[in-house]
């Protein structure tokens, strides 16, 4: 994994960096010389990944190369900071001050040059050690996927159906029917635990997911899917049950409750419901013991589905039990599943040589020993290698007997992993750092990849497009699971627990990251792990991480609420590039040492309320500030004036010094979802920028009951808008008026089902200016119970579905410039409170419903000009 580190540095020491440091004397020339040495070194790293387990000397040299690469990054960042300081246009006093500081500038410049000389000497020494120990690069001749491949093939890849949409259930029909029958047995009124038992990768979760999708909403009043996993915590499991079974409104109350209070709350809620709860991947009997009190047995046919690798767990629950062992696939089923994965339609189109591949494929499928995950991964790997010589080599050279004796799929995963490019390897391992069953937003993932330097510059593609191609590539190879996708792109992904365990083991051995669940993990150097520059914290760690592990590159805190905030410090993290904090609850004043992290490129915050020290303005290398799921108590005055800043996404800003805040001109996206008193001059400042950014403000006007979301989100085919509404449940539940006028903000995901069920107090709603880009809009039964006024303006909807019982109090409906809508829903006739219908600039609309409403005594106004349209007004006072 040292190759991608060197490649990332080489990319950063390109033309942009050299131009930026052109005022730094001999430094640019020295950087160029170092660049040449690194290129020579990269040539020797092309196949080291395939030989990582073949010698301690090679491991040691690779580790040293990576150390050098990170040292070069620090030097480059330091040079850039110095260049920006020296090139800043000074005032008169600034010029005097600059002259006084010139000796200090020269000293720093000399220090940078000396450090470059030292690193260059070390690179040459390492290069000599390669020759000394006769370590040569043989090169890998396999053809790998490239972003420069045929554009038609690439377009097909970007529109593949989601793996998460239809679950492959080959060979599982019997198990599915048996589990389904057990869940729906009308004669069994007892609370029953249905357990699926089998090895990792045998298909337990696949069966459970298929049955859950079939029966959950149709036959049960309340449903929840909970992943238990090896990282089980009582609070985490209970929190997920509340969120899944009871909804976000109840979820917000958990911050002040202890575990027993939450159990009582769940028990009280479920005792009046026929419920279905899936507990996926339960490892220990104690895990069940800690949460079983939450599940009442009121003899109404409620069910719990439990998946586990441990048969003792399935026999443990003190309740009526049904145990279903998941069998391995037979030969015919194995071949069928393999063919489905190995021969995607886009890859085999127009080929007439598939018979030879299928003969070899049958041999390979049978060698996977009936384990579905092994077959899926093998098929995904070979779907990218449709060359008969490669398939024959696989049959002839892989030690299948050893794999069978080991009883796992590690060797198959090795094959898929080694076939990836260096950048794709890094991207895959990065995903495995997230907790088990964690739903990873693709927008977050691509931003992290870019900040880490995993995404190369490709002609004709933005970094975001290339990163999305990597996501699609990993999904096609069946190394990640698509959890959710829109019609154009993948939205969220997951990693199978078996692949995640394998990836973490690989990351530890290669020093890609170090996962820590305790103080001991942070402070201990394990003999079978290489030194890592990335650290992932899963649990409470009271030790100062930066002191115990100096020179860290990345810190991911994935259970921030368990941090001992009074003890935790950023001390020693001065060279950090990426900081991501997830899972925070309550208020956290970030340590003042954050101002010393001048190399930080990405700062991501999720959950809770964060308080910043004024020193955050010292983050002069910051590229992305992403707090789209967090609240910022006070927006730092100078944050938006950082010259390197490209993306700012914040869920909520509680206060700021509006008149002192300035926006620098390099921003590409600015999104503040909930903002009090957003100044008009900001919109004017955005219009004057050289390159208009995507932007969005949610204006509050004194009261959280009034919200207007305005902006302009750039939309490029194949690339999801990174400025988008977060979970719509984050909207204030007590909103009375909502206006959304921001093109592309909602993308093509219908917002009405969520808005209708969540904003139960909403009186006025306007959605316009192509904020929603989908073709169908559905207002579900029971949705918008208090809505009086609805305005739909300039949308491309082709079909509007109004279910019985939706919007029962609607009085005024305005439709303007929805030119693709050819007919109004018949359900409008049944809205007893509807008094007025306005149809403006919609010449193609079938007016049958308009006529029927007019005949029934409703006021119907039809106008041809958009000049007659009036927007909803959001008053600047409480109502």
From TrEMBL:
Any GO BP: plant-type hypersensitive response
Species of provenance: Hordeum vulgare subsp. vulgare
Lineage: Eukaryota, Viridiplantae, Streptophyta, Embryophyta, Tracheophyta
Name recorded for this polypeptide: Predicted protein
Alphabetized UniProt keyword annotations: Leucine-rich repeat, Nucleotide-binding, Plant defense, Repeat
Secretion signal span: none
Pfam families with a match to the protein in the record: NB-ARC (PF00931), Rx_N (PF18052), WHD_DRP (PF23559)
Gene Ontology molecular function terms on file: ADP binding
Gene3D superfamilies: 1.20.5.4130, Helical domain of apoptotic protease-activating factors, P-loop containing nucleotide triphosphate hydrolases, Ribonuclease Inhibitor, Winged helix-like DNA-binding domain superfamily/Winged helix DNA-binding domain
Stated family: Belongs to the disease resistance NB-LRR family.
Residues covered by the AAA+ ATPase domain: 190-329
